[in-house]
Amino acid sequence: MTTTHFDTITYETDGPVAVVTLNRPGQANAQSMQMIDELDAAFDLAAADAEVRVVVLAAEGKHFSSGHDLKELVGPEASAELQAERATAEGKFRHERRMYFDRCVRIYEFPKPTIAAVQGKCIAGGLMLAAMCDLIVAADDAVFQNPVARMSGMGVELLVEPWELGIRKAKEFLLTGDSIDAQEAWRLGMVNRVVPRAALLDEAKAMAAKVALVPPVTAERIKDSINQTFELMGKRNSWNYHFMAHHFTHNTATALGKLAEREQMGSMREVFEARDKGDT
Ligand code: ZN
User: Fold this and answer.
1) Structural domain of residue 211, as residue ranges?
2) 67 CA to centre of ligand 1 in angstroms
3) Does this model's pTM top 0.90?
4) Most buried of 73, 89, 91, 166 (most Cβ within 10 A)?
């Protein structure tokens, strides 16, 4: 067993199974730019290691991931460099293509099978990340939500919901911002199984060990062939379309106005609570 420590994740291999663990539990595993870079580097390690046959994507602490770390993008703690890049529509597009869209698609297209082990909150960009994996094992306390429409955004950068939930449920999920618990996610086919919270990592590793028995060339072809089925249904084209539309809604007067209000009110939560009460 070997462990590689990054700052925001850990990478561990045990025989044919690699476990990548999001490790910012104090921030509910909000995905910072550093975390996204380190995740990419961990997948490089898994790709380069011929011993590794399956990758488990897990998370330390109470929650899988609260989504992208918005504190880096807006507000007093925001990085000057990122704010400069995101100051224009073109810059925002470039930044999200590079850091969110391409990085997630890379995990989706990773040749070796991947399994997400999800507990607690799995929100917006967290759900997008988990949905890139081939299989999902959920703890009984897992909760899925993508409430960004409530904040004027059009989902996150990749639209996973219709593929995960079916069309009608996807519309309800995004338009209401309501959450789905582990049992409902299982019923809808979004997760493969629901297990007790304490058993989550062991169950995900056991599933990985079983998948690892399939000859890698076969496992990779099964994954690729199933993904190809979705290509024939237009998955990548729909993602490309959604990404463009997502950026349209990023730059509307409504969205930019809400960001400006945020500067005055302190947090997005306050802006949208006021809106939902009918104050603005
Ligand atoms: Zn975005």
Assistant:
1) 2-277
2) 11
3) yes
4) 73
Assess contact for 130 and 116: CB atoms under 8 A. Answer: yes
- CA–centroid distance, 246 to ligand 1, in Å, is 6
Residues with CB under 5 A from ligand 1 (ion): 96
Mean pLDDT of 5-31: 97
Report the chain's mean pLDDT, rounded to a whole number.
93
Residues 137-170: tens digit of each pLDDT? 999 999 999 988 777 777 899 999 999 999 999 9
Ligand 1 center from residue 156 Cα (angstroms): 6
Query: How many structural domains is the chain composed of?
Result: 1
Distance 244 CA to ligand 1 centre (A): 10
Burial (Cβ within 10 Å: 0-12, 13-18, ≥19) of residue 11 = buried
Ligand 1 center–CA 4 separation, angstroms: 31
Q: Tell me, what CATH number does 174's domain have?
A: 3.90.226.10
Per residue in 184-235, pLDDT tens?
Answer: 999 999 999 999 999 999 999 999 999 999 999 999 999 999 999 999 999 9
Q: What is the DSSP letter of 109?
A: T
Question: Left, alpha or beta for 175 (phi > 0: left; psi -120 to 50: alpha)?
Answer: alpha
Taken as a whole, the chain contains a residue count of: 280
Q: What is the pLDDT of residues 102-121, one digit of tens each?
A: 999 999 999 999 999 999 99
Distance CA 92, CA 108 (A): 23
